[in-house]
Sequence to fold (322 residues):
Amino acid sequence: MVTEKKERKPLILKQKPMLQVIYALVPLCLAAVFFFGWRFAAVLLVVNIAGFFSEYLFARIYKNQVTSAVFVTSFLFALSLPPTIPLWIAVVGIVFGVVFAKMAFGGFGRNVFNPAISGRAFVYVSFGLPLTSRFVEPVWRNSNGFGGFSLWQASADTVTRATPLVKLAGGETIPILDLLVGNTAGSFGETSALLIIICGLYLIVRKTANYRIVLAGLFAFLIFKALLWTAGVAGTTDPVRSLLSGSFLFVLFFMATDPVSSSQTTNKGRYIFGAVFGLLVPLIRTFSAWPEGTTFAILLTNTFAPLIDYFLKASKRKAAVR
Fold:
């Protein structure tokens, strides 16, 4: 009797949309090396290894494959970290994000919260000092044109440089060109607003990211920020510079558009989801002790995504009955 051999599944399930996100993140990774040195490559490597094995262990229990999405999570998480973050903290963060924000819910497609930003939030509240005092100025202007490609990392004596959001909150004016090209302190992947926009538009053109979420987030942010600034509310800053500073654009293009943790049932839901995120960021930046605000804004918006979809579906059903 001849028995047929079961075809073994590949170890990693390739997901074309997730691979498109990785392609879009590659220029930001190269820029991170150029701005801050080869240490970013080490951070990216250990985060991907730790993220992969974290999902692999649970995938074996669930009898599933490791998905390409885990590498997207790892890339996004690595790019969200300060340039001199200790490697062990990076490992702790990605393990938490993959295990508790994704695999504990059952794996890809079942998580409520974005795993990358969940890991970032965990290390932020657990290791506040390393996450807020590990920023450095980019090294590319003082490296004979080779940038960080000729260095391991920025000099230790440049640690604790103020980020643009901190400077803006203190009343300083930052040239918009510096914010566009990346001549500012910040996390690995957030300094060059222009490059983030270009990479984000690539995802929109490829229809990997939904433009409705992005547009709603941008308009909500600018309109609400402009209203606060015009009204002279204490703690608010120039809307345009605030938009180009920090991680708002990075999170909007690459995390708010996550097909799992965002509202994706209806176009109306996508607009609402993006608008909620766009409103929460300036609200947190202005009235809380956190100058950034995007981490908690996207987690709160993720929380309401299922409710947005539920009420829109219920409204549609009622309209159909009438």
Remarks:
- The radius of gyration is 20 Å.
- The longest helix spans residues 294-321.
